[in-house]
Specification:
There is one protein chain. By secondary structure, this protein is α/β, with parallel strands linked by helices. It has one domain. Helices cover 31% and strands 17% of the residues. The strands form 2 sheets. An 8-stranded mixed sheet has the order 1-2-3-4-5-6-10-7. A two-stranded antiparallel sheet has the order 8-9. A hairpin with a 5-residue loop joins strand 8 and strand 9. The radius of gyration is 18 Å and the shape is globular. Bound molecules: iron/sulfur cluster (SF4) (2 copies).
Amino acid sequence: MKKKHHQVFDDVRNVVNPTPAITKLTKQRLANPVPYHLFVGKNLKLGNRIASWSTLMGDYKYNMPPPFQGIVGTCGGCCAGCKQKCYVRHSYFKPSVILGHTINTWGFRHEPWKVREDIAEQLSKGKIDIVRINQSGEVENVFQFAMWCELAKRFPDVKFYIYTKNYAVAEAFLVGDQVAPNFTVNYSIWHDYGVSEYRRVMGHPNVKAFVYDDGYPISLKVDAVCPAYKRGPTGRVVLDHNITCEKCKLCFDSMVHVTSCIDH
Ligand code: SF4
Ligand code: SF4
């Protein structure tokens, strides 16, 4: 019987031997290395000129072959409330997705300057309008905020949106750095997680909030509801394929501070 996604996910992390599929793919990638890069295109939700950056979700130890053996997810203590429901898990049945997130995680931890310059090279080609950072995973330290902000300063025509639940590090960055006008820090809020932390910085011109609305009452005024997801007649949430972020741009509007969404 075919395994469900979460079962495959459980196989991949916290087990003794890397899966043959991951090992084979890793060997291929290491033999033919490609620069670090933002993921762009082939995304039903985002559209063609919106790029994303992802690292390993959760705080799990992943079972990867060398040189990535023992690598741990980037969400650290920030994911206690969300890792069991994290939407990224649904994509981790694909070895190529896990490997891509692993390489980005490893790169940030071991050669962040190369990550930055490779991404700068990609951005210099002028094919990207918006960068969504942390489609999966978290910011691990204030230097990563500073790195993305430095790229935003170098590419003032590109808008950078970073999604985070690492509120303490975000606040340290916001009070300590000159934030580029095209760099927005989106506090990811779920239930009570992040509400009081967002209130502490909500007056900052570079801060917004993105609320995952699963019906739990939150005490924030919501300015916009993401139109990409709708609840079908059976109650199931479906993605409207006619709406991409590239066309919609609602939550990027300067008048919209708090956006809610019934799915990710
Ligand atoms: S929802 Fe975000 S913080 Fe939570 S586990 Fe997933 S990637 Fe990490
Ligand atoms: S509100 Fe619009 S731009 Fe924002 S996430 Fe939803 S579809 Fe994308």
